[in-house]
């Protein structure tokens, strides 16, 4: 077993990170090794729960790389409590942002299957085994994804999001996949190359489009992870950055993949519709209506726009109608 950066030329820039690595822990040689990277951006209050959810998995062969860029909160103190687990490896003071942290971890990966789990999310008990089995059952697939539970800051489930069917355009429409649920084949990651360190918000969407050039994704019809929403998470606090990068990634994908270009207006309309719903949630009706207008101008009525009035009602009356209907629709659409 060699580090990914040693095997694949696209990763040569990270090869210096792969010297003198400890041997992986193999408890069942009949099963593949799974390498999981945890980028650690000052999430000390959550990272212990994240690591426990990985290390308590009912799967025998794991290596876990925590890439910590020298954080200033309680992260390092929490990490020390896991020092006795030989599956866990901690690298401090190395990364230059989330994408670079994931690259640093994956460069060291010896596993046949790789993933990353953000330090405020968690796996449910059979997540790793389920996705390994899915990839084994579908050898043509380059990645497996599943459904996830949105949770609040305290870990209480807010709603469950089903894994909808795969299509490359669904990646750009932001319909799939839920990032924490994704497990990828080593070969696909090796060939696709690095995550784009210029991206801060939608780096996962960009990478799914890189990976999709090498094969399809497979959906697992179950809920496998949590996705935590809290006041300091980028998903909650920094919408505008996502908007710019979603649109940028879509335009770059259509420029690079001519066979997808006929769907350009419809995809951009879906992105603007998503932006409209997010602005409605934030209590910004003028911006919500502006983005809805862009969506309608590009491609007419979008089903996603049906959530807009519901999101405004939720904001006004502190209800949860849009989420409940959205979750119900997601479970119907997966069929």
Automatic annotation (TrEMBL):
CDD domains in the cross-refs: GT_2_WfgS_like
Domain of life assignment: Bacteria
InterPro entries reported for this sequence: Glyco_trans_2-like, Glycosyltransf_2, Nucleotide-diphossugar_trans
Coiled-coil positions: none
One Pfam family in the UniProt entry: Glycos_transf_2
Signal peptide region: none
PANTHER family recorded: GLYCOSYLTRANSFERASE, GLYCOSYLTRANSFERASE 2-LIKE DOMAIN-CONTAINING PROTEIN
The protein, known as: Glycosyltransferase 2-like domain-containing protein
Source taxonomy: Bacteria, Bacillati, Chloroflexota, Chloroflexia, Chloroflexales
């Amino acid at each position: 077993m060699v580090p990914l950066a040693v095997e694949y030329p696209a990763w040569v820039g990270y090869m210096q990170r792969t010297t003198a690595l400890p041997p992986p822990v193999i408890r069942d040689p009949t099963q593949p090794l799974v390498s999981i990277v945890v980028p650690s951006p000052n999430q000390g209050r959550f990272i212990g729960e994240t690591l426990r959810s990985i290390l308590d998995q009912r799967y025998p062969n794991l290596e876990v790389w925590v890439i910590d860029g020298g954080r200033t909160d309680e992260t390092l103190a929490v990490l020390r409590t896991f020092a006795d687990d030989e599956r866990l490896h901690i690298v401090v003071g190395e990364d230059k942002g989330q994408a670079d942290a994931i690259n640093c971890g994956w460069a060291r990966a010896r596993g046949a299957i790789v993933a990353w789990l953000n330090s405020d999310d968690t796996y449910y008990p059979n997540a790793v085994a389920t996705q390994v089995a899915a990839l084994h059952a579908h050898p043509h697939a380059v990645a497996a994804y599943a459904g996830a539970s949105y949770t609040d800051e305290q870990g209480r489930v807010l709603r469950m999001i089903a894994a909808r069917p795969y299509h490359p355009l669904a990646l750009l429409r932001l319909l799939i996949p839920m990032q924490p649920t994704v497990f990828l084949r080593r070969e696909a990651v090796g060939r696709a190359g690095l995550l784009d360190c210029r991206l801060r918000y939608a780096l996962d969407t960009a990478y799914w489009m890189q990976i999709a050039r090498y094969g399809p994704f497979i959906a697992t019809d179950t809920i496998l992870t949590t996705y935590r929403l809290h006041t300091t998470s980028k998903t909650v606090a920094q919408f505008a950055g996502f908007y710019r990068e979603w649109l940028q990634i879509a335009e770059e994908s259509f420029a690079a993949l001519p066979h997808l270009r006929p769907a350009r207006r419809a995809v951009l309309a879906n992105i603007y519709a998503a932006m409209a719903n997010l602005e409605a949630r934030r209590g910004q009706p003028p911006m919500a209506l502006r983005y809805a207008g862009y969506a309608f101008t590009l491609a007419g009525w979008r089903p996603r726009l049906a959530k807009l009035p519901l999101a405004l009602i939720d904001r006004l009356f502190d209800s949860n109608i849009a989420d409940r209907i959205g979750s119900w629709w997601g479970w119907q659409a997966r069929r």
